[in-house]
Design a protein that fits this description.
Among the domains are: 189 residues, no CATH class; 65 residues, no CATH class. It is 42% helix and 13% strand. The chain has 17 helices and 12 strands. Bound molecules: adenosine monophosphate (AMP) and magnesium ion. The site of adenosine monophosphate (AMP) has 18 residues, from loops. Adenosine monophosphate binds next to loops.
């Protein structure tokens, strides 16, 4: 006791108290997928890694999941994020799914390098999956090592968080860690990482296809009922809940893909196993935002035919939804001809839904009223394509002109100015909707995670330098705001910085 009667400060005791407090941290798991029949998944604990180190925690998202961010940053939290310990209440599983990859069907894919830890109800009352990606082999790994190289972890973190900030439905990034071990890839040995993904669910078109391929109608019904309950509860009360499920997925994909395209986003691997029924963007592999606009732009090194190019994404969405519809046929009606007729009628609505979403988004981007002629949209896209104009910068400067800036900076984006000036004159002659400026500001981001910056952040990470990664993550959290400190991230790549190809990293 000190002379003032105050007990001397005991750091050891305090640390013990803190560690006890943190040690008792429980994650409020509330798992439902693990309660489905056993053929839906395989129980699988994550692999142990030698030396986990934290790269980044998404503290806001942790709080939304009622997980103490300070605990996540503690040794115990990092251990869980690396797969070295299993939190109480977690029931780790690898989910089964099939899928069409570039048009070819595989009856068995499944989580070969991902493990679902469990589900949490977030503070909005929404059920969220917590999944580790890169956490070791499962029965679905086939020839793969179940690991992730650091590059894809960094890419998914940046791009999925950017998409969330841009307002696009997407899976989220809760955390990224390094593992202290190297993984072998085509490029050679690369540092490994584990990514923690949060998703409304990981139910894919391919999950349904897995059971159709096995003629397991009971499982299809169980999965469809589970999906309706989790994502589209309104469908449960409709006459044909399975048609309503199909209609809901169609509407969600039409909205999602039009939204991607309005931001110049190219998913890169729109396989049916990478199409979430929830309508979230999922599986950020060789994805990228394009700089110079071209409708046939693609980045993925494996998409040699351009199947998943920017302008093909709507058609591919319909193709994937058609595969989904096929899985629901046995549930829609016992009479297969009738089932086909119903499903076809639903699928036929996709094109209209998609083009309405697309035109609405692009009207907002150029700030024209719903009555204005839509050719203005295509005309300007044709000019951007033929003159290799940067997509994001064009809409950013058009927004500035709408705000009263002189047009010189905008016009300077075009090498052949006359045709663009003609377009601009037509645009000026359109009556401006009262909400023009706010519509344009909300539709035209100032900042996107440019592909060369993502690539530089990845290269930095491989040198154990996460400064650009952190800077990008902070910057893209406010993509529609003027942030002078991040102005350098707005500009397109210099010729030597251009990234022509992106890789899945598998
Ligand atoms: P993706 O192309 O990332 O959508 O993955 C397609 C399939 O390959 C899924 O079944 C993945 O689980 C599997 N896969 C991808 N990378 C690996 C890996 N490193 N080890 C094992 N399986 C993998
Ligand atoms: Mg995938």
């Amino acid at each position: 006791m000190s002379c003032l009667g105050i007990p001397p400060f005991d750091i050891g005791k305090l640390l013990h108290k803190i560690s006890k407090l943190y040690g008792s941290m429980t994650i409020p798991f509330d798992n439902t997928y693990a309660q489905l029949p056993e053929r839906f998944f395989a129980k699988q604990a994550p692999a142990h890694v030698p030396e986990p180190k934290l790269i980044r925690i998404n503290r806001e998202l942790a709080a939304k999941l009622s997980i103490d961010p300070d605990w996540l940053e503690s040794v115990e939290g990092i251990d869980m994020l690396a797969g070295n310990s299993i939190a109480e209440g977690s029931e780790p599983i690898a989910q089964a799914y099939a899928g069409h990859q570039f048009g070819g069907f595989s009856a068995q894919l499944g989580d070969g390098r991902a493990i679902l830890l469990g589900e949490i109800i977030d503070t909005d009352g929404a059920r969220q999956d917590l999944q580790l990606k890169g956490s070791g082999r499962t029965i679905f790994s086939r020839g793969g090592d179940g690991k992730a190289a650091l590059g894809p972890v960094i890419r998914e973190y940046i791009v999925s968080e950017a998409m969330a900030a841009l307002g696009v439905p997407t899976t989220r990034a809760l955390a990224a860690v390094t593992t202290g071990e190297m993984v072998m890839r085509q490029e050679g040995p690369l540092p490994g990482g584990v990514f923690t993904r949060v998703a409304a669910s990981h139910i894919r078109v391919g999950t349904f296809q897995y059971f159709l391929a096995r003629n397991d109608v009971d499982a299809l019904r169980t999965l469809a009922d589970y999906t309706i309950n989790r994502h589209y509860p309104d469908a449960a009360v409709l006459d044909n809940r399975y048609t309503a499920l199909l209609d809901s997925a169609i509407a969600a994909q039409a909205k999602l893909i039009a939204h991607w395209m309005s931001l110049g986003f190219i998913h890169g691997v729109m396989n049916t196993d990478n199409t979430a029924i929830s309508g979230e963007t999922i599986d950020y592999g060789p994805c990228a935002f394009m700089d110079e606009f071209h409708p046939q732009k693609k980045f993925s090194s494996i998409d040699t035919g351009g199947r998943y190019a920017w302008g093909n994404q709507g058609d591919i969405g319909l193709w994937n939804l058609t595969r989904f519809a096929e899985t629901l046929l046995p549930l829609i009606s016992d009479d297969s001809e009738k089932a086909i007729e119903i499903a076809e009628a639903s699928l036929e609505r996709f094109t209209d839904l998609f083009s309405t979403e697309y035109v609405t988004r692009f009207r907002a981007k150029i700030g024209i009223s719903p009555e204005a002629p839509t050719p203005l949209i295509q005309e300007v896209l044709d000019l951007l394509a033929s003159q290799k104009v940067d997509f994001t910068l064009f809409f950013r400067h058009l927004t500035k002109v709408a705000a009263g800036d002189p047009p010189e900076t905008l016009t300077a984006l075009f090498s052949d100015k006359a045709p663009f000036e003609q377009w601009l004159a037509k645009w000026h002659s359109e009556p401006a909707p009262a909400t023009r400026l706010v519509d344009m500001q909300a539709a035209n981001p100032i900042l996107i995670p440019r592909n060369h910056r993502v690539e530089q952040a990845i290269q930095g990470a491989y040198r154990n330098d996460f400064a650009l990664f952190d800077r990008l993550v902070k910057a893209i959290a406010n993509p529609y705001s003027e942030q002078s400190e991040y102005a350098g991230l707005e500009t397109p790549p210099l010729p030597e910085e251009i990234v022509c190809e992106t890789f899945c990293g598998t």
